[in-house]
Amino acid sequence: MDQEKHFDGEKVEKFDIKIKSKPKDGVILQLHHTVRDSHGEYRRIRFSTAVFDDAQEKLACADNAGNLFIIDFCDLKFWKLANRGLCTALHFIPNKLDGLVVATAEQFSLNFIDVETGSKSHMLIGHTSHVKHISFSKSKMNNLLTASQAEAILWELKNYTKYFTLNTYLGAQIQQIMFTPAGDYLVACFQNNTVQIWKHDTMKSVKQIIPSELKHMKNIAFTMNGRAMAMAGLVPTLILFSMDTWKVLKSIDLTKYNIRGVQQVAFIPQLFDGGSNKILAMLSSDCILHLLDLEALKIIYTICPESSSIKKIVVSQTGKFFLCILQLGEVNIYNTSLVLDMVKSAILGPETKEVSTSSTITYKCNPQQHSFNKLAVEQKMRACMDSSRLRRILMQYGEYPDKFRSVIWKSLLNTPRNKVAYSALVDKGIHPAYKNIEKQFTIHSSITLKNLKRLLSCLANWCPLFGVMKFLPAFVFPFVKVLQKDPLLLFECVATVLMNHCQLWFEYAPFPPISVLAMIENILAEHDPQLLDHFCQFGVTSQSYALKVLETAFSEVLTCSEWLILWDHILSNEPAFILMVVVSYNIVQKNALRKLKSHDQLENFFHLQNPIDKKTFLKKAYILLNETSEDIHPRRFFNSFVSLEKGDCYQQFTGYPKATICLKLAKNEREKATSANKCSLRELTTRSQEKIINERLKNDFDRDDSDKECREKHFKKHRRKSCVHLQSKGDCKNNTKEELINSILFPPELRMHCKRNAESKCSRRQKETPRSSMKRCSDKKRILEKEVEKLVKRNSDISD
Fold first, then answer.
1. Class of domain 504-638
2. What single string gives the DSSP state of each residue in 357-410?
């Protein structure tokens, strides 16, 4: 890194980095800091310390001039923070976004820095010499342990005060001190070859270890599950100690590996080792890094760079990366999986060669053979994947590795990979409901848009329900972003999720899932009634604090990495777990929610990404899953997990009321048909009936006009007999209209009977008084109007 031109001033500016995808020696990135002095000559500033942040895949490195660099492996960026003096120790703050603790030589202070902006939020002062060790407790997140050679201080970060101080004396100064991975114990290694263990809760000493065969102890390390501890020093002996039984597990003589002493040890976690790590990295006293397989008791790999010897090693917490700080000040960053792949390829490959003069191992293998061996290993790994083992791995590491996430999800959901059935759905083309989906969502990537359209169309072709559910595009979109490289796996994963984890969602489609929302409200009422009262106070229903979160699959309220981790847990558990996650999210965010004092603020809260402690969030979900009363537990109402069937077609999706969705589809067709004419269905029906009546009236009166004399006699006769017929030709028209309406309402045989009755009634009507005739005529008119209204209503109901 030549940074002479770029880092003037306090402004944080980011620059691109390029990582080697397939390095021969496993080094994906090499760091060096070169500057030009006042004489125009270049000189290199040495890096002194570094630390990984596995949660965000970031690396912080500091050099001897006080320069602090941040490397982001996700975004492939690096930048420099403000110089705060010589840095002696670094540590990322767990469960806090972009937080870094920097121990500086000035006042021996501890500075809390934001790695994105470089701003300092707090500073702790209390040490009397340089801080060399920083450790956080996993059991008590607010406990910070810092130590120099002279003293160790336990800080309470809620109030930023000292909680406990450990002072040492000359000759028994601190070599190393840390919390165990579980946070239950505090372990210190002293210069007098003693290991002291304290209980974290009470700070009482529980064990003291003085290994007789291990002199000049330099370093200790713990497995990821904290059940074993490795101790090493400047004598060729390695001791493995059990933290469960407080007994020695193994004592390994290192002379048979030509190792005369060890400066530093660190376990390298591997995928699927359950936290009981089997590979130990040892930096020998001659500055060579050895990887020791503790099961086979064999050195599987040795690293000795040609340019310089190794000064210090740093391993990330999950073992994804490790680095070597060289004596000349460079930093070599390794991808652990690539290094181990090289080891496996060398073991399986036909040719291996060891160069004894430089204590390094060089491997030669055919690239085709390498890819074949890698594929064989992956296939064997997939065959060994069972759900129970995957769940144990998930509980140990908290998430599945990105590299194998799609394979693991496929195994958990037991997708059949029905290529013929999927092709049949794709061949039906883009569904009309999603033809213009780009108008509803702003998607910049044409590839993502194409994959989203294809997925939604396949779902709608598989089941008509998915063509009318408005929330579906937002629900499936994050799955498209993650699995779009394999469209078949994407469809089958989403379809399986809709069948199992979305049970009862479509019970009242297209209306909200009342049963699901009632379950969530009951769980919240049992575990946090105060929060439910707060929602009720401002009129916020479960459609806001539950349905909005479910319909977006939590993508609106979580970051990308948080979303992936959450769905690792959802897919690894029973279908009812997703409802527990909704309640957990509300309870964990309770403090923020109770500060909102209006309906609109509470509504908007569930459409924003709010900071959340993902470990607390998931832990609470598991507590709800295990401690919710059986009478309101969702598993009472949910069916067991059912995977898609393997074959030439997928089974039908039946989790919705067919009558409701048919009416919904009919309504959509009706809206399309009447889009040009804005009249209502009732008006259209009335107009059609009037058109029929008027056409028949016109035909009848055309026939009457052919005989003018008959018509005149007809009117004269009626004028003399009754004044009712003085109301003009409209009454005659109304009588004809009555007959035509009857012809529409009644069958032909009934019309003949009505005609005879009409003739008898006509003779009686002539004898009645004009007033009674007018009354009967108005009554008849009302009856006709009611009949027409019934007819219109009947047609309207059928159409709806």
1. mainly alpha
2. TTTEEEE---HHHHHHHHHHHHHHHHHT--HHHHHHHHHHHSS--GGGHHHHHH
